[in-house]
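Task: complex structure prediction.
Instruction: return structure tokens for all chains below.
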Amino acid sequence: KRHQKLITEFFNHS
Amino acid sequence: MLELRLVQGGLLKKVLDSLKDLVNDANFDCSATGFSLQAMDSSHVALVALLLRSEGFEHYRCDRNLSLGMNLSNMAKMLKCAGNDDIVTIKADDAADSVTFMFESPNQDKIADFDMKLMDIDSEHLGIPEAEFQAIVRMPSAEFARICKDLSTIGDTVVISVTKEGVKFSTRGDIGTANIVCRHNTSVDKPEEATIIEMEETVSLTFALRYMNSFTKATPLANQVTISLSSDLPVVVEYKVAEMGHIRFYLAPKIEE
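Output:
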């Protein structure tokens, strides 16, 4: 089973 | 005061067509550097970053940094009213609650202005670090669009794998499986027909085809697309916007649980 990661898990708020 | 005059107004129409299905509302940021946008889709799985450098405009006046909140489907509706060869000027006052789009026909015999209401948008701005990619694929944008469209009739996800054999796009669904391999190929008549694969390490990542198909709405902007991949990082799908900038789509991978 694959889990969809979110963009916010990779890039921090600036 | 903001006044941006773009001779190739058709570019802006194409840019909006490539954004409007992915993002509803976004802030366009205007600074001395250029006209830019960063926005995520509503489920925070994909992010789009647009940059149109100030040098690409025939006239670029931006007295102070401005953020213009716009509904992208409404903006697309307004830009649809411009001819493909029209010169487009974007105008706004510093404290304006609206933006004006002015369209001039190439021979100046028709001039139109459309005023659109601006909106306040709470946007999250993400810092995107410079990354070293394990593999970078450059290929004809129409070919990439065709592959994404074809695979989405069979499955919901695409596995993109880069090895020394080439780049492989794979999917599986209820009716079966599909694999499409594109090899490095520079022996073509025109440079835009080339497929160039630069690989530091093999890489294989899984992505939702729904988003990939949405990114390919940018195909009319550029003959080539660049796909940059690294393990456990969002893929970057980039289209150049003429000589003046780019539109980059970032898509988070699906990870095996």
